[in-house]
Structure formats: C-alpha cells, structure tokens
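Re: the 446-residue chain
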Amino acid sequence: MLAGGYSIGSPATIDVYQPREAAPALADTLRAQLKPWSQEELDAALEPWPHAFQERHTGLFPAGEVSILAAAGREGKTTVKIGIAVAMVMQHTLAGGLISQPDRSVVVYSAEDDRAQYARKVAAQLACLGAQDASCVRERLLVPNLDDPGLASAKTLVRVLDGQPLPTGTVEAIIEGLHPLTESATPLGLLIFETASTLSDAEESNPGFRVLVLALKRIARELKVPVVLSHHVSQASLANLSDLNVSTTDIRGGTALVNNARQTGLLVNLGSDEDPFPEGDARTVLREMAAPGRPERITALISLDSSKGITPPPIFFRWVTTDWGPAAVEINAPAGIAERSWRKVLEMVRARRAGIRSEVKDEAKRAAADACLQEVVQIVHDLQVQGELPTCRKVSTGAGKGADWAKPHLSQAVKSGRLVMSFEKVPRTQGQTAVYRVPHLSGAGQ
C-alpha cells in the first residue's frame, strides 16, 4: 500500500461529493482567497514561466504542465525524444537560444518499449559523445524497467471502472517514487511518458484523455517538472504532410488531449538523400532550407501552440548512424530560418515551392518549345530533300497542325541559326512568300 491508501494499479477514488457540514469550511476558505493583488504578485508576474528549454519568454516544455509530442507511427518519436533528453542532460541548447537549466536529470517512463529497447537508443546517442559527456548521460538519463515483475501494474495510469475512466494508484506511486530525485544534486528536469495509448486502458476519446492528462498534470505540478506525453497522429492527417499542413487537429483522439495540454508539437520526417520525398514536396523544400547539403535524414520538431510562453521556432535533428542504430542530434538552422516562428517558416516554404513550381512550369514550356523547334527543322529538312519549297503552310501541314502553327517556331529556328529564310515566288501564290531551308544542306532543292 502507498500513501493515501492506494496500491499500484488499483483505481484511485475521486470524491465528487462534499458533505453538507463541510460546506461552511469550504466557503470560509474560498472567501479568504478573495483578496486584492499584492505588489509581490505583480512583480513576480514579470518573470517568464519556467520551461525545460528556455530563453526569456520563449520556451519548450513548460514546467508543471503537460506537453504533447506526436508523430506518425515509425517516424522515430523515441529516437528524437532521447536526443532531447541528452540535450538537457548535457545543457545543450535547442534552436540556438533555448537553454536548459544546469545539472538536470531526465526520466523516461515508457509503457511501450522495455529497458533493453531504450538501451539501444541511449547507446546510439552515447556513440556521438566524448567519454566525459557519455558518462554524464549514463548517470542522469533514467529509464525504469516497467517489465520488472514488481511493476507489472505500473504501466497503467488510467483504468476503466463501471464504464468510467479513473486514475490508478500508479499516479501516486510515480509522485512518491520520483520526489527524492527532484531534491537531489541533479534534480529532475524533464519527465517523458510513452505513449498515450499504452498508459491508459480507456478508449481514445475525450473522457479517457481528460483523465489521463489531468493525472499527468498532477504529477507535473507535484514534482514541479515539465511532463511530455508521446502520442500518434491520425491516419487522415498523413495526406497533409506533403504540403506541411499540420495542426493540433492532426493528433489522434478527442480534443481533450490537446485542450488540456499546455504545449503541442509534431515530429515530421523530412526525408534523406537515400530515402527522399518528391522534389516539389514541402518536406523536401524544408529539408533543403534547414539542412542544405546534408545527406542524412532530417526530422523537424514543430511546436504548434503554447499557452505558458512564446512558441519556440522549429527545431531540426539529423540522424547519425551508429552500431546501435540511429541517434538524433540537433543541428542549427541557417540564419534565414533560425529563430523564426513556424508560421513564418511555413510561409517561406510555400514561397519557395511556388518558385519551384514556376521554374518547373517554365522548364516544361521550354522543353515543349524546343520539341516544336526540332520538329519544324526536321520537316523543313524533309521537304527540302523532297525538292519542295518549305513554307509555313507546308511545315504546319506536315506537323498535322493549322496553317500558321509553325510560324513562331520557324522564326525561332531562324534566330538560332538552325534555318535560313528567304522571300521567293512560290507556285500558286501571289507575291513573295517566306521559304525556309536548312543551311548547307546538300541535295536541297534550291
């Protein structure tokens, strides 16, 4: 049994009924809170809300709150989140100016993958570090093994009882178990939960998600740390990725998940030289803008909204190949897009795509015009060989077109020197008619 009478995995009761005799005491407490603002409160409001990574009022993952980080399946959510965890442990900046607090630990609480799976992810990141940094990460990036027999019920934060989703005693156990770490020499700086679908027995609907987020929010506020919940996007949203039309509505399930969180972000694979998206795809355009010349896979962390600070700019990670699999390492975006909001970056992507489309369209026009030019030159050649006078009408007829179709192409061929033109008397015509010939063609009827 744990504090409060809970046992791990058992449903926690929610007291929604207040006895009549408790009402006066509650009323007195409420009345006591109806007080004017103090100057100390107003002065404190000048300070930005603390985040896991922060520069003044711009922040990633607010403390004491729940953030959602979603992606399509098999898109490398865990790889990137371990990369983020390593950045915090190493006091590494993200997006250039988002600086984590010093000497912090990170806990990854996963009901999805076991500790052995995370060992590969961590080892891959360690392979990118020097000995001293690697030792620090090994000490401070903590992943409890929830497959341990003593933690069989610890994977479930929400159970369903009589059709109602309720938080389990695991919530209390997490708070009690991690509290000493918050007061250690390397206090807890970030708590990552994976994933929404595996931590709850409830359906992916508003009632179940609301209970899950409120349970995580309680953990975040009791421990005073940022909590990040991993989740998936809907299948329907995948069709919008080629245009990077991403929004919070892409996140799978009910609106309660997003509405009760304080920051929402998406991880988007931008492709690689080995496995690229099409040339005009918005993901390809963004990859070329954010990581010009890099052949490896690039992933973007796109923050969509934030209610506790200014939404940070997109953050980009390159995938490094190691003996243990890929590691995600943040890269600094070029000055043109660094520190710009996602809305501004998306505007730049759309402008670049429009330019690419225009270039492609112009190239197609040039190719079509060149093909027509080649055709008229060949028809002129053939008419000459046959001893006929190549006029515009005859060339157009030879191409199966209207009488004047060949005129602009013949004019271009003359300008480029591929044909010569002279005015001559042509049988059954009045006056002089333009006649076209291939220069220096032997055997031409002249």
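The first helix runs from residue 23 to 32.
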